[in-house]
Structure formats: structure tokens, C-alpha cells
Amino acid sequence: MEIRQLRSEEFEDRTALSQFAFQYHLTPEEKESKRLNYRPEQDWGAFDERGELLSAMLIIPLEAWVQGRKLAMGGVAGVATWPEARRRGCVSKLLVHGFDTMRKNGQTISMLHPFAFPFYRKYGYEMTVERKKYSIETKQLPARQETPGQVKRMMKPDIEILNAVYSSYASRYSGNLVRTQDWWENRILKKSGAFAVYSNENGQPEGYVFYQIADGKMTIHEWVSTNEASRTALWTFVANHDSMIDEVTLIAPIDDPLPFLLSDPRIKQEVIPYFMSRIVDAEAFVREYAWDESAGGEREEEVAINLSDAHAPWNNGIFRLVWSAGGSARLERLEGQSYEQAASSGEAVSCDIQALTAMLLGNRKPSFLREVGRISGPVAKVKLLERHISERTTHLMDFF
């Protein structure tokens, strides 16, 4: 079996596989449009000895907000295998090759939307993003309130304005994408709907809602409010549609407080496990990660980490996680006598790459992970680790 990037002339084979696996059909016009935008350098395939495509996987070069910083991320998508090639290890080989590729490209983390969570957990991915879906009857909408500033419909979407508001909001969570002009044009604005933007009394945009109305239902594709004034004003705008709609649906972050703010909080809520993440290169990721600066003291602090990773051997081993007095950190591999001492002392915190991902990308506290048996180690060392990790809700508004 050969693992390699696809070539432009293999577009038809890749498209046929995708249509079969994901059960959709492209018109000739849609196929030609995809051909023009096809990027074979992002597409990896598993081929048999005759050169026939068995399985394929996209690695999309993206950036994600993590603890307020932009980190290079490999977005895994479009994983598909012909039925006659299944259970031959094609996807396993693609993923393992992909981890090495992402590491070489400086993508310290990876994210994906799983067809099955248990399957990707075998490869070190862990659930990091959950979202809430609201279905709200018009009679339950927040009461209309006067606010400074105003909400105006944007007749022609201005990406520069929208992205500035989006970035201010998205960077408050870990997991959201850093959107490019191309992403806006080819991913966001391809959806049907309209934008309404809230600007404060000084004319500064501080929130927007991207919505569509059909058959008496308002579907909110995106809700972005950076402060309470924008939240209140946008809900008043939505409520002003009460004569033409019966229901509003939207997706919100898992910590969204809307039900508490409603006079009647008995709205329909659904918690949806959404995306998974994985640390690809632990040493590089630790250097880039924004640790809690308030936890730093006058001297360095450290904890030994016994890390296991079945599919990325560079993450395997015992490391010293060292925080400087200024709050930055480094992960140093232990060898020789230092390794022996750390291994025999019983002072190391032991975890796999999934648990480390859950801590640093999934907002799961080390103390909780220890309680449920996902990590082990002395309580004092676990608490030290926890003290250096800032709490930040995870969220992802996009799909890939």
C-alpha cells in the first residue's frame, strides 16, 4: 500500500469516492466548480499495488484560536474508503502518515468532525467541543428592550466588518477557526440568508446575526455578540419578526446563559457533541500554549509527565514540564539517569495524548480526569498542573 498526495488528474477518482461515501450527487456544473477549486496538495490517498485509490483524507491547513492565541491546525476531513478496501488499515495508515505530515508543517494540533467518536479516540483524538441547540417559540423570546446604538441589515456583506466582530468574539473561546477571506467567501457566504449588524452609539460594530427565514421559522446560522448591549439589541431585532415566525433555532456555546435570562426558560435545549481535537506535537504545542500567567511565581515550577501516544512516537516518553516565572513553559524529554529517577519516583503524572488534549484543548480539569481514572499521579502534582491551565470554554462555529 502506498500513501501519497493525490494529483490533479485523480480528481475524478477522488470525487467518485466522496460521492459514494457521503451519499451525495454533483451536477456537471457543481463538479466543474469543484474541479477548478481542487487542491490536490491537501488530499492524501492510500493506493494499492495497481495504483488504484482505496481511501482518501483531506488535511486542511487552518488556524484555530486556543487560549487567545492563533495556532496552526490540521483540519482532517473527507475521510472515505471504498467498501472493498475497508478493514485493511487504510485510514489508520493515512492518519499516522498525517500526524507526521502535520508535525513537519508546524501544525501542533488537529481537529475533525467524527463519524464515530470511538473510532477516532483510538487514534488519540478526544471530544473537545460540545454545543447547545435552542428551539425557541416566539412567545418565549427575550423581551424587547431599548439599547444605545442600532441594528441594521447589511444589504451586501462586508467581510472586513464581519470578520473584525467575529474575531473579537471567536478568540474568547478555544477551538474557533481564524477565518480568512477565502473561508468567508467560499464557506460562510455560500449559505442563504441575511446579516444584521449591531453598532454602538459611536458607530462601532459589536455584534451580528446571520439568519434565514422560511416557512415560519427563523434559522440563525451565526450569533455573534461581544457584549450585553449587542446581545440585547440583536434579540430585540429577532423578536421584531414575531408576526412572521413561530420559532427561532440557533446553535450556542455550551456555557451560553440565555435560558437563565429568559422569563420562561423552558425552551427546548439539546447538547450536541461536535468536534474532536488532538495534540500532534506535544513539545512544540507546550511552547506555543498560553499558560495561566497569574500562576507563575518567583521561580520555575515543574512536574514530570509520563506521556503515551500509540500513533505519534515522538510524544512517547517521560518529560519534564517546566513553567518559567514569567508563565511560559517548555517540555523537555528525560533520558538516562533523569529518566530513571522520574520513572521510579512515583511523582510523575501519567496520561495518554487524549487526556492531555482534554486538559489543554477541551477545558477538562486534571483533577476531574484523575477522579475518573483518565490520568494518575500524586494529588499535589495534579493540582500544580491544574493551577497553570487557564479555564476557557471551547466552541466552534464552523464545519469542515
UniProtKB/TrEMBL annotation:
PANTHER family in UniProt: N-ACETYLTRANSFERASE EIS (PTHR37817:SF1)
InterPro entries listed in its UniProt record: Acetyltransf_17 (IPR041380), Acetyltransferase_Eis (IPR051554), Acyl_CoA_acyltransferase (IPR016181), Eis_dom (IPR025559), GNAT_dom (IPR000182), SCP2_sterol-bd_dom_sf (IPR036527)
Keyword Lipid metabolism: no
GO BP term (any one): aminoglycoside antibiotic catabolic process
UniProt protein name: GNAT family N-acetyltransferase
Domain of life: Bacteria
GO MF term set: aminoglycoside N-acetyltransferase activity
Segments forming domain N-acetyltransferase: 1-142
Statement: the UniProt record of this protein carries the keyword Transferase: yes
PROSITE patterns: GNAT (PS51186)
Keywords per UniProt: Transferase
Organism: Cohnella herbarum
